Amino acid sequence: MEETKNTAALILNRQAYKEDASLVTVYTRHFGKLNLVARGTQKLQSKLAGHIEPLTLADLMIIKGKGYDYIGGILTRESYSGIRSDLNKLYYAGQAVNIFNRLVKEDEPDERLFFLLANWLALLNDFTESNNFSSDSGELLLSFFKLKFLKELGYNPEMYKCLVCSQNIKPGRNYFNLFQGRVLCATCHKNEQPGFISPNDLMVISDDCVKIIRFIIDKDSDQLIKLKINTRILKELSKVSSNFLKFQI
User: What are the φ and ψ backbone dihedral angles of 174, each rounded to 5 degrees?
Assistant: First the structure.
């Protein structure tokens, strides 16, 4: 009898594999990231094909195989139609999923990562504005995802105390250490010894950006709609979160 297991899964990627099959990358709730074969999904009449598209949340039955395990059954739970129908949302969803897929290792299950991505996709899917979904909203949501994702991976930024003196950060000209993910106060930056901290690791960070990152790290996604950020601070937030991510990969 074939060994089977069942789990919820987020479809991250799909590519053609051998004759008429697909190789599907999923992140499952119980088993982490897996690469699975979906047989016959290149055929027009395939019943599985519509359920293995990226950006799908599905209930999955996995059957043990000699090489890759394969998908024995799959049922879509959420197709995120609000994302698929909006090109801007689709772009930001793709960015988040690509980051997730690139950084998460196989066979290391973590329910927190599963729910982080699932909840973020639901947030993006349901996000509404008076006009069309804007790039500003997309950048805010993507920055939120990057910082929360890095936190779950163990790279939680310290935004309250100085990297060097450990004193509470005060308003003024402070710096963010991209390598260590901590703020450096103006006094310690002025007095730092040469070679202790590389200038290439630092970027100036405004008081408003410090506050926004604190809010994002400390609050859940349902609090995000309360944030009101002007374009200048949003660009700074996007730059900080993107550069912080690059330093960790």
Answer: -105, 170
pLDDT tier at 130, thresholds 50, 70, 90: low
Could you read off the pLDDT of 176-222 as tens digits, one per residue?
999 989 999 989 988 875 555 677 889 999 999 999 999 999 988 77
Say whether 123 sits in a helix, a strand or coil.
helix
What six digits make up the tokens of 70? 């394969």
Each residue of 78-88: b (16+ CB within 10 Å) or e?
A: ebbebbeebee
- Is the same domain home to 114 and 167? no
15 plus 120 within the same structural domain: yes
pTM equals 0.91
Same domain for 151 and 120, yes or no, is no
d(CA 127, CA 194): 47
Last residue of a domain, one of 70, 101, 133: 133
Say which residues have a Cβ less than 8 Å from residue 87's Cβ, sequence separation at least 6. none
Q: For residues 4 and 191, what is the distance between their CA atoms, to the nearest angstrom? A: 61
